[in-house]
Amino acid sequence: MSNIKLPDLPYAKDALEPHISAETLEYHHDKHHAAYVNKLKDLLPGSGLEDKTLPEIIEATAKDDSKQTMFNQAAQVWNHTFYWNCMTPDNGGGEPTGDLKGKIEEDFGSYDKFREEFKNAATSQFGSGWAWLVTDKVGGKLSIMKTSDADNPLAHDKVAVLTCDVWEHAYYIDYRNRRPDYVDTFLDKLVNWDYANAKYKGQDAGVEGK
């Protein structure tokens, strides 16, 4: 039996206001995220993947064109769960903390350079997609990547550390077409550096279906 379910948000729907509204989270989590969960649950019976975790489903379907629909649903369930945890209502955003602070300075030269590259990835992604801070599985070097639609680092043998959702439903209610302003707010006011540090250190935070 599938263990896939819609996770609760890690904070109240109004907790990110005024940066992201309760209305946005109601639609984004309760409608969009829930739809991916429900569609994946419909696709799993008879697939042989019913008892697999989300990462296992993603890895099993990522390079199989015949399973593209299942990959899209599974990846979007995982991406959204990861994204919720990348934000915090408690003094989020700004310069990194913990081990990531030194590692970002080492691999990007400075936090400002990292911020520039991350914002550029998020704002230059054509159409729907994601901007990511990732690390190599071997060596731990940090880098920025952007992915289209449901694609994510798991499909590219990378470890996700931080993500910003740049599908329009993530920001359009609050920012309309001003994606750069949304990305600025994400970086300056919302990033959960404690969570990003945990993912960088390879700690399982009990989310994303692991």
Structural description of this entry:
The protein has 210 residues and is mostly helical. Helices cover 46% and strands 11% of the residues. The protein has helices at residues 22-43, 54-61, 68-85, 98-108, 111-124, 172-175, 179-190, 193-200, and strands at 129-136, 142-148, 158-165. The protein has a 3-stranded antiparallel beta sheet with strand order 2-1-3, sandwiched between helices. Helix 2 packs across helix 3 (68-85) and helix 5 runs antiparallel to helix 7. The longest helix is centred in the first third of the chain and has 22 residues, at 22-43. The protein is globular, with a radius of gyration of 16 Å. The relative contact order is 0.17. The model has no long low-confidence stretch (mean pLDDT 95). Keywords: Metal-binding, Oxidoreductase. It catalyses: 2 superoxide + 2 H(+) = H2O2 + O2. Pfam families: Sod_Fe_C, Sod_Fe_N.
